[in-house]
Amino acid sequence: MKAIVITTPGGPEMLQLQDVEDPKIRYDEVLIRVHATALNRTNMFQINGSYPSPEGASPCPGLECSGTIESVGKNVSRWKIGDQVCALLSGGGYAEKVAVPAGQVLPVPHGVSLKDATSFPEVACTVWSTVFMTSRLSQGETLLIHGGSSGIGTFAIQIAKYQGARVFVTAGSEEKLAFCKGIGADVGINYKTEDFVSRIKEETGGQGVDVILDCMGASYYQRNLDSLNFDGRLFIIGFQGGFSTEVDLRALLAKRLTVQGASLRVRSPENKAVIISEVEKNVWPAIAEGKVKPVIFKSFPLSEAAEAHRLMESSQHIGKILLVP
């Protein structure tokens, strides 16, 4: 089969389409012929060598896919050959075929095309496991999403509004903020021209927000704490702003704050299967109702993976970037 190979750690130019062996499935896995896959920033870190594949995972990039099941392991009962599905992967999505544990597979959501379905597994599992399963965002609470126009951000806006939350977002242009408001964000903050702490305090009567989903890490850490309400929860999912900082810990005690972090990719298959089950139960109905829609910026042929990654690095996109074998 054809797959994208990282020839040596570096930039997008190190991605090459090559012939590789077809993956072999285990007793609890299915083999999917990939119809589409999607880019995630984690793939960028894998390509530059700072975030290697978990042990046992495919060395090829790609953390989600959609496609058709070609074969099933002997212990797989739910899925059968010919089923159209999407899946959460530990790697290997940038290829014509991929093997994945059956517990990480989802049906294509009702009303969504097979191609567009690839935009959901990674963002849905990331947002549902962090904002809802762990940080327990509830109806009537407030959520701040940094990077509101990203794939994770555009999904988080929609599912948080569906769950009855008030949504704040940061983004770096008025165009991106307008898009975020168009899909449900209540308050948009341009981080290049505004201080998001001051704006949040202004919009919440000095209280702050209840939950923050943060992709920046160190550079936003203290300001995130300053932006939280009493009993607020900060969940860190990335380090685009660095991973080391000094912090004033007094706010943690005074406001009873919770700070957590997690990476989806390194979770065990058993843990991912629990998240997948919760996503199917709680998120898929919202998609079927048309309340949460795929946000696709552009699709590229698999052979143009390097160009797709250059687009992601530019941060000019809104939503997801797809690759189609």
Task: Throw out a few tags for this protein.
alpha/beta, 6-stranded parallel β-sheet, 15 strands, 11 helices, 7-stranded mixed β-sheet, 325 residues
Query: What general outline do the C-alpha atoms trace?
Result: globular
> What percentage of amino acids are in beta strands?
25-35%
Number of helices: 11
The unreliable regions are none
Give the mean pLDDT.
97
- End-to-end gap: 10 Å
Query: What is the share of helical residues?
Result: 25-40%
Q: How do the helices and strands follow one another from N- to C-terminus?
A: EEEHEEEEHHEHEHEHEHEHEHHEHE
- Mind telling me the C-alpha Rg? 19 Å
* Largest sheet properties: 7 strands, mixed
| Secondary structure category | alpha/beta
- β-strand number: 15
Task: Please give a quick description of this structure.
The protein is α/β, with parallel strands linked by helices.
Characterization of this structure:
This protein is α/β, with parallel strands linked by helices. Helices cover 29% and strands 27% of the residues. It contains eleven helices and 15 strands. Strand 1 and strand 2 (15-19) form a beta hairpin. The longest helix is centred in the middle third of the chain and has 14 residues, at 121-134.
